[in-house]
Amino acid sequence: MIPRFVWLIVIMVTGQSMTPSAGMAESTRTSLFPKLHAGQTFTYLIQYRSKKNVKTESRVFTPLGPQNDQTDSQWLLHVEILDVHPQGTKAQGTRAAIHARSQFQSVDSTLPLNSNDKSTDKQRPPSAESKPVEFTILPNGRADAVKGLDLLFPEQRQVWQQWLRQFAIAAVFPREGVKLGESWRSTEIEEAPSPIAKLQWEKSESYVRDEPCFPVQISDAGVATPKNSQHETCAVVLTHAVLKQKSSPKDTTPVDYKLHALHTSGTASGTNETISYIDLQSGLVVRVTEDAKQFMDVVIAKTDESNKIHYNVNAASHTELLLVAPAAPSKP
User: Fold this and answer.
1) What is the pTM of this model?
2) Which residues on neighbouring strands pair with residue 320, listed in sequence order?
3) Contacts 24+ apart (CB under 8 A), 108-114
4) pLDDT at 218
5) Within 13 Å of residue 274, how many CA atoms lie on the same side as its CB?
């Protein structure tokens, strides 16, 4: 649900505390955590657009600082479940540690070539598939023992992290399950490295309704449309998140910055609106739409004031995650 902080590549799924609404009948609660088994495979289409504008004021050249950036991409992510280890009792709300492997594939590489195009230059992209990433999703939504992520292109790493947070979104729901019509609040500490300390996301979430949902099929032209023959019923969950700064704007210095004789000051803020469609039977996310905006205005300076850099960053992103229907078996 929450995208990376505006100028960072690494995204971490952090811990959280939940405060569900009182007075709900426990017998009608539903766990929306994924219910998976070893050997299961599925595919997601991920469409991601982002734009980041950065203004920098400094007397020195800073090649490692945040830069202007614009992304518009879509990928297929194939996921294979390698193992599942249930944890917790039924009374606690049974969840599982999910060991899985994923691999990106270019959407273009799955489309048929135009048979009317006689050009000899028409061929598949040379790197249609990425290196595989192996990982474990813990019951609290954290990713553990991630292998291969560093071998992906930066854009693929960013999209993979977006997928992970959306796929494991129910890990931040009340562990005992949720009830139709229920609303709850949660707080998530922003643990990704940042020049502004003590940031946290304050979220309000609501299980608003159940409605039909459909995986998508991808046409020969690369257009995703619902596959109406595979009807499911999904819980629709709305999430509104606000980034709050708990440090004083006059001194936002994180510990690791202090160790390098640096001082930071400034402000950060952000909002995030997410609509999630989660299959009531399997717990698989069928569709997620997310719109995020973030802002940061920060000064990073030497503690002796001998040098300083001022960053002003505005960023916005739109993400759509769609479960792809399995391909029909080929006829003999």
Assistant:
1) 0.80
2) 47, 289
3) 108/222, 110/76, 110/218, 111/218, 111/220, 111/221, 111/222, 112/220
4) 86
5) 29
